[in-house]
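Re: [ENG-882] Designed sequences occasionally contain unexpected residues at chain ends

Forwarding the minimal case from QA. Structure tokens:
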């Protein structure tokens, strides 16, 4: 598993250099920078992009301006490095709306810098307040959108598209089995908590190995057992228990943001 998560030293150095340049050019403070795509999900292809995602903080004076500032930073993809991120105010707002992407970025197994302490505090808040059904609905929409595009091209289904439906399906299953815990971001960890038959686990492992050897557009033959699993779990989102937010969630997030902005 470590090999699949490893980032080559020269690529890590290039990503770190770009992050430092971005912070200087934009006049922001980086709070977190992580990998978000297939490399962090545990099923990269040889030509997978590096999907670098970050949270950042603007200077206090920017938050006192009447003119709203853009809350997203993006850079063009160059040399397979896709770099973008959110203002921490935007990230906290999405967290309060139970955005599963925020949850995944917080727990990415590949990190490009030391986290600011606010990141761990956000994780603690999400653990206490996240809505399991809201996450399940997110993953169901994600998976169904992928399944709808399975047969856009001839010659089978792309390995990538299988995974882009399988990971959401397993996330729903993990939430069904234990709604008190956020589903792991990485596929191998998801498989570990989903109580699957050994034959299914073996088939998923073979698919991971296949994707490691093919490019992003590589196809595979139909896999009926995996397709059944995906279809069954994508239809189970509404069975996941709901947790309604209470006012303490928003109050805690607000305090966190104010403390962050007031930091010297």
């Amino acid at each position: 598993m470590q090999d699949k998560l490893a980032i080559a030293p020269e690529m890590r150095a290039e990503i770190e250099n770009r992050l430092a340049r971005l912070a200087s050019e934009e006049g922001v403070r980086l709070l977190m920078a992580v990998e978000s795509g297939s490399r962090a999900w545990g099923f990269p292809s040889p030509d997978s992009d590096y999907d670098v995602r970050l949270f950042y903080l603007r200077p206090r004076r920017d938050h006192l301006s009447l003119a709203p500032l853009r809350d997203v930073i993006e850079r063009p993809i160059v040399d397979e490095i896709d770099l973008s991120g959110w203002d921490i105010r935007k990230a906290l707002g999405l967290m309060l709306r139970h955005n599963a992407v925020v949850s995944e970025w917080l727990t990415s197994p590949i990190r490009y810098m030391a986290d600011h302490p606010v990141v761990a505090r956000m994780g603690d808040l999400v653990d206490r307040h996240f809505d399991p059904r809201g996450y399940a609905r997110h993953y169901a929409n994600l998976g169904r959108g992928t399944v709808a595009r399975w047969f856009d091209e001839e010659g089978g289904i792309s390995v990538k598209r299988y995974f882009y439906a399988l990971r959401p399906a397993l996330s729903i299953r993990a939430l069904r089995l234990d709604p008190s815990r956020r589903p792991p971001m990485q596929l191998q960890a998801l498989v570990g908590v989903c109580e699957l038959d050994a034959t299914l686990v073996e088939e998923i492992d073979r698919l991971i190995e296949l994707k490691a050897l093919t490019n992003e557009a590589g196809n595979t033959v139909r896999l009926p057992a995996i397709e059944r699993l995906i279809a069954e779990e994508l239809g189970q989102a509404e069975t996941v228990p709901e947790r309604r937010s209470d006012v303490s969630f928003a109050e805690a997030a607000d305090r966190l943001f104010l403390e962050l902005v007031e930091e010297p």
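QA comment: On inspection the terminal residues look reasonable. The mean pLDDT is 91. Proposing we downgrade this to a documentation issue.
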